[in-house]
Amino acid sequence: MKYDGWSIYEEPQIARIQAAADILSRLFGFLAPKVQPGIATAELDALAEGFIRAEGAEPAFKGYKPPFEDAEYPATLCISVDDEIVHGLPAPDKVLQAGQIVSIDCGVCLEGFHADMAYTFAVGEVSPPVQRLLWVTQEALRRGIAQAKAGAYIGDIGNAIYTFVKSYTFAVAEQLTGHGVGEAMHMPPDIPNIGRPGKGYRLPVGLVIAIEPMVHMGSGRIRKGEDGWVIRTRDGSLAAHFEHTVVVEAKAARPLTSFEPIRKALAHA
Ligand code: MF3
Ligand code: CO
How far apart are CA 230 and CA 226, in angstroms? Predict the structure, then answer.
């Protein structure tokens, strides 16, 4: 049965995922002004955990064992700097510096329902090509979401992301995918950032998915880092990562997470 175990929900459950997503979106608004030169990634992690617990929710990554790993992730955030793509482990001696790009990825669980979101921040000023990487990755996410309406194919999402990224001569990390999300952090189906139009399963109404393009300035190849968690670009090129949790509806996908609190916080900073 092709939808077996998929994250397909009705309105009452979607409202609960939305509640987790709201906490997550506000968390990013809270963190955004703090992503500055001089802050240690472990400080951001502690602030995030405090924020989530004060909302009566739980950090969903902490204690989570990803598929194909045998250890539990020990932190609230994944903070991936420069050539780190995902799963950067926060550390007290990892201090942000002007000119870096920093991807923050977080999952929140509220009463058994999860939401997942990521955003890449510039620390201070970054060069125009790096600004373009950030813009292209965020725009690729928007284009992927625009494809994710009921009756569309999973391949339509990946195709939109991949062709857009390629048109800017960047590369996607092809082995890393989005996923279903809801009662668990990672559920079927996988949502690749590459695909062919009209290929793969069709998207049913009520399917909740995390769409998350991971884009490199280099080859698109990846390697596991020294601590067993972090995944880097193989060639050391910079990488960006933007992610929303969305629900498939008849005419469009509706984002449950939002970058609006980040925009507001940075506009007033
Ligand atoms: N980066 C993953 C995602 O967004 C989740 C992190 S898994 C963890 O789907 F082990 F790092 F928590
Ligand atoms: Co995700």
Answer: 7
Q: What domain range includes position 170?
A: 11-267
Cα 109 to ligand 1 centroid, rounded to whole Å: 13
Q: What pLDDT score was predicted for residue 69? A: 82
Q: Is residue 161 part of a domain?
A: yes
The residue-averaged pLDDT of 231-259 equals 97
Mean local confidence (pLDDT), 254-264: 98
The number of folded domains in the chain is 1
- Decide: pTM greater than 0.85: yes
Instruction: Compute the distance from residue 218 Cα to the ligand 2 centre, in Å.
Output: 22
Cα distance between residue 50 and residue 44, in whole Å: 10
Give the whole-angstrom CA distance, residue 106 versus residue 231: 16
Share of the chain above pLDDT 90, in %: 95
Selection from 59, 106, 57 nearest residue 80 by Cα: 106
Asked whether 243 lines ligand 1 (CB < 6 A), one says yes
What is the C-alpha separation between 215 and 97, in angstroms, rounded? 21
For tokens 């050391």, what's the residue? 236
Question: Does residue 110 form part of some domain?
Answer: yes
Euclidean distance between CA atoms 53 and 107, whole angstroms = 13
Domain contains 4: no
* Residue 24 covered by a domain: yes
Q: How confident is the model at residue 268 (pLDDT cuts 50, 70, 90)?
A: confident
Coil, strand or helix at 12: helix
pLDDT at residue 1 in the model: 67
Phi, psi torsion values for 264, nearest 5 degrees: -60, -45
The pLDDT of 66-76, averaged and rounded, is: 89
Give the CATH number for residue 247: 3.90.230.10
